[in-house]
Amino acid sequence: MAKIPPPVAAVRMAVRRGLADLPEDALVLVACSGGADSLALASAARFSGRRVGLVTVDHGLQEGSERRARSVAAWARDAGFDPVRIETVSVAGLPGGPEAAARTARYAALASAATELGASAVVLGHTRDDQAETVLLALARGGGPRGLSGMPWRRGMFRRPLLDVARADTRKACAALGLAPWEDPHNTDPAYARSRVRASVLPVLVDALGTGVLANLSRTATLVAADNAALDELSAAALESVRSAAGLSVPALAGLLPAIRSRVLHRWARELGAPGGALAFGHVTTLEALVSGWRGQGPAHLPGGILVARRSDDLVRVDPAFIS
């Protein structure tokens, strides 16, 4: 029996672990762009012996994107994937820059396809290198613990089984299997921050600190994510303990540890309707000042036109019409 090349074995083992909890007859969809990471992921998922389908998303942002999507779909059908879908999306009118808009449209299309097809999971090809880039970008942007926790292994139906696999290994796996990956020009376009980190920052870090720096950054994300999960659970209970008839009790909030209190305020702001994507550190800091830095200041302005003021010993939502 021919020996399985180590990179191929690494990808297959990661996929097997990532799907181990699913029923044997569950349908798994692979999100595949045709790049090395998602091709290696798709091949490993197909090798697992499970019911595996494939979805490729055409964002329409590059010349020839429709042709590329058809090529990926044709390969998938020949390889035995069933079902195979091409999802065509538009990023027009979506918030954020091109990357954020494309991501929003892509995840919506994948979720819709999974629901329609009755899939139990959608697997994504993000690697350890992607995780390291995410941590560095979050650090540069002051993302705090939530940002430093990186991409989760699992969120809802989405799974990322390759977060412990190096990008170099997905490329080697494709080479060993005779797969020809598509090279996305966006990955080398310096207009995108992630591309600049990939091309300039990570190589410098590896040169200065050794190849282990990528695994260490990824491991940091895993550790921080575990801490976040624990703090979020504590803050959910703490929020219930500080509720008052009017809103939130200031004395009760003041008795909480700062790390718990900030999460309580963030969670409450979301309850009031503040969009999570727009709720920033500064907004929570302004709420915090109503508790621990009270000087008779005016209300805190939250995204979505929400105002929160201190009234005696409570934080309460107030109607803008009654603010002079």
TrEMBL record:
Its EC number is 6.3.4.19. The keyword Nucleotidyltransferase does not apply. It catalyses: cytidine(34) in tRNA(Ile2) + L-lysine + ATP = lysidine(34) in tRNA(Ile2) + AMP + diphosphate + H(+). Belongs to the tRNA(Ile)-lysidine synthase family. The N-terminal region contains the highly conserved SGGXDS motif, predicted to be a P-loop motif involved in ATP binding. NCBIfam families: lysidine_TilS_N (TIGR02432). This is tRNA(Ile)-lysidine synthase. It comes from Actinoplanes utahensis. The gene is tilS.
